[in-house]
Every structure is written in C-alpha cells, then in structure tokens.
Amino acid sequence: MALIVQKFGGTSVGSIDRIKNVANIVRKSREMGHRIVVVVSAMSGETDRLVRLAQEISPEPNERELDMLLSSGERVTSALLAIALNEIDIPARSMTGRQVGIRTDNVHTRARIESISADRLLETLEGGFIPIVAGFQGISSEENVTTLGRGGSDTTAVALAVAVKADRCDIYTDVLGVYTADPNLVPKARKLDWVSYEEMLEMASLGAKVLQTRSVEFAMKYKMPVRVRSTFSEDPGTLVTEEEKRMEHIVVSGITLDRNQAKITVQDVPDKPGLAARLFETISNQSIIVDMIVQNVGQDGLTDISFTVPRSDARKAERLATTVATEIGAGEVRIKDDIVKISIVGVGMRSHSGVAAQMFSALAREGINILMISTSEIKISCLIDEKYSDLSIKSLHAEFRLDTKGDGS
Amino acid sequence: MALIVQKFGGTSVGSIDRIKNVANIVRKSREMGHRIVVVVSAMSGETDRLVRLAQEISPEPNERELDMLLSSGERVTSALLAIALNEIDIPARSMTGRQVGIRTDNVHTRARIESISADRLLETLEGGFIPIVAGFQGISSEENVTTLGRGGSDTTAVALAVAVKADRCDIYTDVLGVYTADPNLVPKARKLDWVSYEEMLEMASLGAKVLQTRSVEFAMKYKMPVRVRSTFSEDPGTLVTEEEKRMEHIVVSGITLDRNQAKITVQDVPDKPGLAARLFETISNQSIIVDMIVQNVGQDGLTDISFTVPRSDARKAERLATTVATEIGAGEVRIKDDIVKISIVGVGMRSHSGVAAQMFSALAREGINILMISTSEIKISCLIDEKYSDLSIKSLHAEFRLDTKGDGS
C-alpha cells in the first residue's frame, strides 16, 4: 500500500464530466489499496478568465489582490471534486493552501514555499478522508493569500508529497508524458519512459510546459519520484527520477523551444566595474528573472550588454534598464521579442564532447544565425530568430537521432 | 467624520463597469471625510452558477464542500473592487471572512456568527486602507470555511458595523429602499423613508427580500442604524432604526408576500402528549425552520398536524415527517406547495385593535380562503392559495390605505 499524491491539471478538471472522471481515477487508486492525497488546478480557462476581469479594471492589477482573486479558481475545483467523491461514497475534504499549512514568502503572484506543517493534512488522511488540496496557493507570514506562479500546483503537489513522505507524486495532465520534443512541432517526437531530474529541470526551465521548474527542483532535492501521465489514458507516462537508475546514457534526451523570451540590449555602457551589476541588481530586485546575458567586446571604453527576460516582464525590464542607463550614462535601450530559445538537453553530454559543435553546425547548415548561446553541464541553448523555430527543432531532432532511437533505456 | 460600513449586493457589483461605479461611490464617501469599510456580495449570477456546477455533480452536495465552493464568489468581488480602488489611487485591501476574524458555528451553508475579533480590520483601517470584506462567510472552530446563508453578506455588514462601532451601515442594493409592498406586484407601492427594526424584521422574515432577517436582528440588538439605498441613485433610501424616533405610528407600514412556503400535513396523528414535540424536534434538528403550525381538532383520538417550511426544505421535511409518522403510528403525509403567505406589518397594531378582523374580511370580500393564520404583536400572516397572490396584495394595499397615505412620518 503506497501513499501517492495525485495532481490534476486544468484540462483534467476542465468540465463537470472531467471532474467526475478524475473522481473515478482517484476511486480506482484507492481500491488498489493506496492512500491518496489529491492536488487540483483551476478548471482550464478559469485563471485566464479571472486575469481578464482584473485587467479590464487595471492594466497592472495590485498583486496582493490578484492573488486573492486567482486563488479562488483552485478552491472551486477542490470543492467540486470533493463533492464528486462524496457522491460516489468516498469521503473527501477540500483543503486550501492555508489549511494544509503551506507557508510562503510575501512575494505576491510568485511566492515561494517556506514551510509546510502537514499535521492537518495527515489528520485528514488518518480520519479516512481523501484530502483534495487547492493547488497554486499558500499563506504569507502576514496572513495574506499568496500564489506560486503559473503551474504552481505542480509545486504544491511535489512539496506536499515530500511533507507527507509520499512514495510517489503523480502529475496527471493532458499529454502522455515527457517527449523528445513538442509533438505539435515535431511529428516524429517520441514519449520518454524515463527522464532524470536534471534533464527534466532543464526541459521545464527551457519551455517544455509539462512541469513547473520549481516542482522539479523540489523533487530532485528530496528525491521524490514523479510520474507525468495522462488523465485520459492508461499509459504509465514518464517517470522522473534519479539518474543512477538508468543503465546507459544517451547524449540528447530532448529538444525544447522557448517562445517566452525577449531580448533587451543596453547600448554604449561605459566599461567600468560595477555598472553591469547595478543593471542586473535593479532588474532582479523586481523579481524579474534574467536568463541569458552577453556583453559585447568593448570599443572606445563602451560595451553593449544584451540579456533575455520572460516576454511578460519585457516592458517592465525595459523601463528599469532605461532608468539605469540614464543614471550610468549609457546609450539607448532596445527590445527585440521576435526571438526563441532552442535547447538540447541530455545527461550524456557530460561524457560526450563535441555536442555543442554538432548543434551549431546543424543550425549553420540550415542558414540559422545564432544570436546568443548559453550552456550548462547537460544542456546547450541558442537564441535564434523566431521565424526559424520550426526548421531548427526538426533539424536538431533528426540530427541527434531522436526521430528513431530507443527512448532512453 | 463618520465611520460607515457600506455593503454592495450582487447586482451592484454584477459587472466590471458596475464594480468601477462602486469604486466611485466609495471614493466620494471618502472625499466627504468618512472612514469606510466595504462588504461585498458575489457578482450577480455567480452564486447560482456555482450551485449549478455542484448540482450537476450531486443532487445534494456535501455542505462543507458547498461552503468552500460558494465562498469563492465573494472573494473574487472583493479582490476586483480592491483592484478598482487601487487603480484610482485609493489604497484598499480585500479581506476574507477569516481575515476579519468572523468566527461562526459549524452549521455549514447557514452558519451563525459567534464572535468577531476586528483587530486586523481596525489595523487595516488605521493603516489608511479601505478594507473590502468578502461577505457571506466566516470560519468555524474547526477552521473550516462556513457561509451564512443566502443574503448573508447583509449580516456580515451589520455585524462588522457593530464590531468596529460604526456610525451607520449602508446597504446598497438595486431598489430605492423599503416599500409598502413589492412594486412589481403593486404598482401603487411607495418607498418608506423610515421603518422600525421590528417592522423591518417582520418584513424581512416574511419575504421582503431587501435585507436578510438576521442582519436586522443584529442591527436591532445593537441599535445600529441601517440605511437601505440604491447603488444607482442619489435617493437617500430608507432608514431602518429605532421606533422612538418616529412621532406617530401608522397602523400598517407594509404588506409582504412570501412565495417560499410549502405546507406539510401529517394526518391522523394519535392525540397523545409528546408526539407533536417529537415531530418538530426531528425536523428542527436538521436545521429546517418551521414557520406556521396548526393542529386540527381531534376526532376519534386522531388529529391532523399541518405546518409550513421553506420550499427548498420541503422534500427533506416530508421525508423526516414520514419517518416520524410511521414511528408514531400516524397516517399519510401530504405536501402542498402552491401556496403563499401574505402578511401585514406595522408597529401601530400594538395600539389598534381590529386590524386582524379588517384583514380577514378584506380577504373574504374577495372570496379568498384562509388556510392558516399566525400573528405577532406587529404582524398578521395568512396562508392562502398561490393563485390569489396578486389579488390579495392589491386588495390589502388599498384596504390599509397604503396607496395614498404619507409614508410613515
């Protein structure tokens, strides 16, 4: 008998019929003898609907209020699923982020979990109830409702799995699992049976929308096995777990494309120590995540600094950069957002040299210009013009033999 | 400078434009130098939408879960109004029932407020923020979300007004105030400038949907002046306050029609002590409110007991009555719901005799049969066939000169 946290995403609970379907999945797991904790997202479309309402009132809604607004979506789902389970005679109780003791920092709309006191959750379980937790939300030290950012319900699920010492965290979604590339872009993409935390982490942060990055970080830190699987299929999905469990490493496990990028360039920055630090401090103080950074070779004591930020933060970052540029006597600030980041990911890169060179020449053969490059131990990313999205991902998928190879085992 | 609690009902916040309109009303009151606490209902239609979702899953949804579900509607409005106020540079903060310290009993879907610890609300006010409180909800001793029943936001508003020692509680709604009768039924109905707590209490409990009964009880108990007024007009509305302030009493202030009635008859109840008590104990234990009761004259040691309950509880009450009837050896249980209760209300009845007789003969003249009667010091109610609704209310409105008289002053 295992203790399993099951998380159901927005499309999995997108209608009353689908909520009833989820109730049946939970029932079956329970009949197999497992103890279950459920985490739910808002019904698909609901968060967007609420954001639109807020934006009809204000272009930049107060973030504390936005959290109060958006947290209601998950509460609705948790109550409806609890009603559905009670209806088929399975005792269940909806629980809010506060009720399951999820304490976060005070950064509204993208709060981080600081601690979980799972007493009440465990009591509920021991009382014979299936807890149905509203994902995506917590409570700050000031007793305000906070949310964990888009996809935050994944993080809720993994964090709760760790807190209750679950055997596994199952993330139910609308795809069969983790693929070598987005099947919508690459028809030959294949589902992976297995992927390591580190690969998943790179893929998630690089724009594969299957799992929220922070949920994978949590899982990796606490070695919590995560299974990504479909609500609408019996397929076992993809197991995200530790690297050692796999016999042999393939070089590249997957290719991702991140469209949520904007490039900002500050021109003619005086080449003095501390100016770049000042720029990036100002931006990160506003909780904007800077991804790639390139500083061009200086000329006449002036350099250009380019960096990328999420597209949604681009205007804010541009404003901040312009303020700093004026203060430090730099030149114009430019923004370019018709760009994408294409990345290859694989733990095998550690032991294989020449992977980067192979990627660059494959892109060059197609006449694709590389604007920026960043690398880690297990991934290589290139910023390219958006118009090459399709061409680049298909070329690289073929180049690294993902079209045909076995899926990582 | 007064401290005023302003409550806005569902139609007042029924769209984004209307929420912006409410923000302007609040702004104007603030500019007049008042300190304001706002209480909001769910956007009109939202509670019904959520109830429908629940009922698509279960004909009798779990009540704890229903509370979790329904409480989300007011949270959405409170966040949106706070966003709207912040957008016009008025610092405002949404607050949940829990955050303003509203503690209730554990009776889900119709909880009663047990205590309010208004510290955080007062802190928020003193911090220069306008608190925007999600009405209708509280938190139980078990830390579960509870709701106060339909119209519960009125009770939230009055209870908070008492807790913060407000000078007045303004209930903004979609009508100009309290009328001598429902203007939809009686075109000659007139708005009252003033009505006493006791009259308002009778009218509210008798089906005038302007204020929730319990909010009036609260106001009367703590002598909190309540003004009922329209969100869409500058009209000062109707002031609900103590009786002494009025110079002269008119006999009948208003006439109400309650369509939410069902009559249940238990036939052939053995005429022994304790059996009626057992019946009504069983029903009230399920938190069903029994209104009128009539026991017919016994024959052969058997009597018929008839009583009325809210229509929504009729099936449940019928089931309970049937169980008890079987246990005590009574006969058939019958239900009749094509009935209404028509009532006349007025503090002047205390000092005028013959009002009941006048009512009964007015109904008799129209050929309307009276099924049940109940009276209090300041009201007389008759249960009649639903088909006479219109005829009875217009006749009585004319009979007691409400068509023409001055409005209570």
% residues in beta strands of chain A = 25-35%
Query: Looking at this structure, what is the CATH superfamily of one domain in chain A?
Result: Acetylglutamate kinase-like
Quick one: biggest sheet of chain A? 8 strands, mixed
Task: Supply the CATH architecture of one domain in chain A.
Answer: 3-Layer(aba) Sandwich
Low-confidence stretches of chain A: none
Query: How many β strands of chain A by DSSP?
Result: 20
The CATH topology annotation of one domain in chain A reads as Carbamate kinase
User: Helix proportion of residues of chain A, in percent?
Assistant: 25-40%
Please report the distance between the alpha carbons of the first and last residues of chain A: 28 Å
| Content-based structural category of chain A | alpha/beta
Give the overall shape of chain A: globular
CATH class of one domain in chain A: Alpha Beta
Mean pLDDT across residues of chain A: 91
C-alpha-based Rg of chain A, rounded: 23 Å
Oligomer: homodimer
Question: Could you tell me which chain pair has the largest interface and how many residues each side has?
Answer: A-B, 36 and 36 residues
Number of alpha- plus pi-helical segments of chain A: 11
Strand ordering within the main sheet of chain A = 3-6-2-1-9-11-12-10
Description:
2 copies of one chain form a homodimer. Chain A is of the alpha/beta class and 409 residues long. Chain A has a domain at 3-174: Acetylglutamate kinase-like (Carbamate kinase), CATH 3.40.1160. Chain A contains 11 helices and 20 strands. Chain A has helices spanning 16-31, 46-57, 63-87, 119-126, 152-163, 197-205, 213-221, 275-285, 314-328, 355-365, 389-399, and strands at 3-8, 35-40, 92-95, 102-104, 113-116, 130-134, 137-140, 145-147, 168-173, 194-196, 226-230, 238-241, 254-258, 261-270, 293-295, 302-310, 333-336, 339-345, 372-376, 379-385. In chain A, the strands form 4 sheets. The first copy, chain A, has an 8-stranded mixed beta sheet, sandwiched between helices. In chain A, strands 5-4-7-8 form a 4-stranded mixed beta sheet. A 4-stranded antiparallel beta sheet of chain A has the order 13-18-20-19, sandwiched between helices. In chain A, strand 19 (372-376) and strand 20 (379-385) form a beta hairpin. In chain A, helix 1 (16-31) crosses helix 3 (63-87) and helix 2 (46-57) packs antiparallel against helix 3 (63-87). Chain A is globular. The model of chain A has no long low-confidence stretch (mean pLDDT 91). Chain A binds chain B through residues 16, 19-20, 50, 53-54, 56-58, 61-62, 64-66, 68-69, 71-73, 75-76, 78-80, 82-84, 86-87, 93-94, 96, 99, 120, 143, 145, and chain B through 16, 19-20, 50, 53-54, 56-58, 61-62, 64-66, 68-69, 71-73, 75-76, 78-80, 82-84, 86-87, 93-94, 96, 99, 120, 143, 145.
